[in-house]
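Example 9 (inverse folding). The structure is encoded as follows.
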């Protein structure tokens, strides 16, 4: 159905173009979140802004109603790592906010996350976010034909481990993505290189490391969604949806497709062709 025989959903170039449409909606909404997330603004207000933007462009939310999830964004503040439900609590100066968002266009999903520092930047939080984001890009750089899935995982883990004493979540992973938001294969953020399925053209993966300033251990609150660190340490979450093509990786949820990063690191990619 989707090209080369595989146990994973393999997309055609034309189907990647449809995923790119969803990816650009995600990129636009996250840019809007970045601009609006300020001290005094509530995460519920951010959710309403995201809903309005989805309606304006005619896209559907990936998250709303997913296993009963009640919002279109996940808005995780401070020790909340992932899946936090937007609420009426105002953001405060010095908070750190991770926004996860997904959109559907013509049946195809895009999924990405960013970490935003609210107001005054706190150096250790700035560094945590930088390291987590860099680990995501290190994983994306390994999305080359012939590499193995765990090469991505190892690159993410190594980047974080080499940067300092950060906690790396093990319970939550990246994932395949396409006609569904979460698909096989799972992409752990740790592990030895050289294992797992070979990376082939047509695969699409969401790479999403989550790191903390303390322990890697987490628990889920009574709302059955919000995941927090057990030691109260603050966390960062970054994510991109990435296509594997014959020409190299293409970041579907980045406006430039990842072109700037790939050019700086001499990584072949079709990204510049599709930058907006």
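The amino acid assigned to each position is listed next.
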């Amino acid at each position: 159905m989707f090209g080369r025989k595989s146990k994973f959903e393999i997309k055609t170039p034309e189907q990647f173009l449809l995923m790119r449409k969803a990816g650009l909606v995600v990129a636009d909404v996250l840019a809007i979140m970045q601009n609006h997330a300020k001290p005094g603004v509530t995460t519920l207000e951010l959710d309403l802004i995201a809903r309005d933007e989805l309606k304006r462009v005619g896209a559907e939310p990936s998250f709303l109603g997913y296993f009963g999830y009640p919002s279109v964004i996940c808005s995780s503040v401070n020790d909340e790592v992932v899946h936090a439900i937007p609420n009426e609590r105002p953001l405060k100066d010095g908070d750190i906010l991770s926004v996860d968002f997904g959109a559907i266009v013509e049946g195809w999903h895009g999924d990405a996350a960013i970490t935003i520092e609210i107001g005054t930047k706190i150096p250790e939080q700035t560094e945590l976010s930088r390291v987590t984001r860099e680990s995501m890009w290190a994983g994306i750089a390994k999305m080359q034909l012939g590499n193995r899935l765990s090469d991505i995982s190892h690159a993410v883990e190594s980047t974080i481990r080499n940067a300092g004493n950060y906690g790396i979540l093990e319970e939550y992973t990246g994932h395949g993505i396409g006609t569904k938001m979460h698909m096989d294969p799972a992409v752990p953020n740790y592990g030895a290189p050289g294992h797992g399925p070979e990376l082939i053209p047509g695969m699409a993966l969401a790479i999403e490391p989550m790191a903390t300033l303390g322990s890697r251990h987490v628990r889920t609150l009574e709302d059955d969604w919000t995941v927090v660190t057990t030691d109260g340490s603050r966390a960062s979450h970054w994510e991109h949806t990435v296509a594997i093509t014959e020409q190299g990786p293409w970041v579907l949820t980045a406006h430039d497709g990842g072109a700037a990063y790939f050019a700086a690191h001499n990584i072949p990619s079709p990204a510049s062709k599709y930058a907006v």
